[in-house]
Amino acid sequence: RVAMVSSGGPITSIIGVITGMPPESSIELNLRIKNTAISELVVTPKRMAVLSFNETPHLQLPATQALLTYA
To answer: Cβ(36)–Cβ(60) under 8 Å?
Structure first.
């Protein structure tokens, strides 16, 4: 397991490569990324896959929902 911290641009680029989406779609996707969101990727010698994307379970409590912002 490896944890990486990054901004939305590199995350969206990697998601685009894994899913094969065109660059225009990657730009649109980048605008939908929530700040502090968690995305999980699985990378093995045989494949790359998106396990989860743009999740914010740490901001689901009523006291933290106001902290949710977008790129």
So the answer is: no
Q: What is the pLDDT of residue 3?
A: 86
- pLDDT tens digit sequence for 18-66: 999 998 999 899 999 999 999 999 999 999 999 999 999 999 999 999 9
Residue 14: enclosing H or E segment and its boundaries? helix 8-19
Question: Residue 36: left (phi > 0), alpha (psi -120 to 50), or beta?
Answer: left
pLDDT band at 1 (very low <50, low <70, confident <90, very high): confident
What is the separation of C-alpha 51 from the centre of its chain, rounded to a whole number of angstroms? Answer: 10
Q: Residue type at 20?
A: G
**Whole-angstrom distance, CA of residue 36 vs CA of residue 63:** 16
Q: Which stretches of 1-71 are assigned E, i.e. beta strand?
A: 38-43, 48-55
3-state secondary structure (DSSP) of residue 59? helix
